[in-house]
């Protein structure tokens, strides 16, 4: 997806992907992550997800990356927190106590700008990207996080019935992207109640990726 696609979605408040409450897979499986209290968790393509508020309330530190400044302004308004905003090369950093969100193209994010992270929570990030961007994205995530462990949430459905995003990913494709770098465990495979976008039978999967 091109940047304009996402900017337009945020400008027009077409954000059906936004859950408005903590993601069920995150709440169910956070305890499966071998991380210490206060760990720093990175949410790529974070939008204004309420997962951030939930993780902060559990005592974790949060980092995020998001293209849309509208999304990030709404995120801080809704937390509510007043950010300090600084420019870091092509990115902006919105920072407050225990939270840093880098605003701009995630492919401009470097390990130095991101800083060390202990885990990645990928919900609606890998599946938001078309096939030709996914290989670049998975390589980049592994690089900028120095192969931090991941909790990854994906959807699988008949792609001929509906167009993405979110795009359908099979377990084989997830393994194709990540098995050279991580041991992969399928934690849960659950039917999406009512179907994806209320129309398409789908399953939602949670994977734990531990660096090898
Ligand atoms: C499907 S939404 C998911 C948002 C969030 N993870 C959630 O669960 O609500 C994908 C988000 O990725 C952002 N995005 C898309 N391409 C991006 C890029 N290259 N760099 C940073 N963010 C990007 C979009 O603006 C959008 O907010």
Automatic annotation (TrEMBL):
Molecular-function GO terms, alphabetical: thiopurine S-methyltransferase activity
Reaction equation(s) it catalyzes: S-adenosyl-L-methionine + a thiopurine = S-adenosyl-L-homocysteine + a thiopurine S-methylether
Main EC class the enzyme belongs to: transferase
Main location: cytoplasm
Subcellular location(s) per record: Cytoplasm
Keyword check for Methyltransferase: yes
PROSITE patterns per the UniProt record, alphabetical: SAM_MT_TPMT
Keywords per UniProt: Cytoplasm, Methyltransferase, S-adenosyl-L-methionine, Transferase
E.C. number: 2.1.1.67
Binding residues for S-adenosyl-L-methionine: 10, 45, 66, 123
Presence of keyword Methyltransferase: yes
UniProt GO BP: methylation; response to metal ion
One annotated Gene Ontology cellular component of this protein: cytoplasm
UniProt cross-references to Gene3D superfamilies, sorted A to Z: Vaccinia Virus protein VP39
Pfam family for this entry, one: TPMT
NCBIfam families hit by this protein: PRK13255.1, TMPT_Se_Te
Similarity comment: family membership: Belongs to the class I-like SAM-binding methyltransferase superfamily. TPMT family.
Protein name as annotated: Thiopurine S-methyltransferase
Name of the coding gene: tpm
């Amino acid at each position: 997806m091109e940047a304009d696609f996402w900017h337009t979605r945020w400008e027009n408040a077409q954000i059906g992907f936004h859950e408005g409450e903590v993601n069920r897979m995150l709440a169910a499986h956070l305890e499966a992550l071998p991380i210490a209290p206060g760990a720093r968790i990175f949410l790529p393509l974070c939008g204004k997800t309420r997962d951030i508020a939930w993780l902060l309330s559990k005592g974790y530190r949060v980092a995020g990356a998001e293209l849309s400044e509208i999304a990030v302004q709404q995120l801080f308004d809704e937390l509510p927190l007043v950010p300090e905003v600084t420019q870091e090369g092509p990115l902006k950093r919105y920072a407050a106590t225990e939270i840093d969100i880098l605003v701009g193209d995630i492919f401009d994010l470097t390990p130095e700008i991101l800083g060390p992270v202990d885990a990645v929570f990928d919900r609606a990030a890998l599946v938001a990207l078309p096939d030709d961007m996914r290989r670049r994205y998975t390589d980049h995530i592994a690089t900028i996080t120095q192969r931090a462990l991941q909790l990854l949430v994906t959807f699988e459905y008949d792609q001929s019935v509906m167009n993405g995003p979110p795009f359908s990913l099979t377990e084989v494709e997830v393994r194709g992207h990540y098995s050279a770098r991580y041991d992969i465990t399928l934690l849960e495979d659950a039917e999406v109640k009512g179907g994806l976008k209320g129309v398409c039978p789908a399953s939602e999967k949670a994977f734990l990726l531990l660096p090898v």
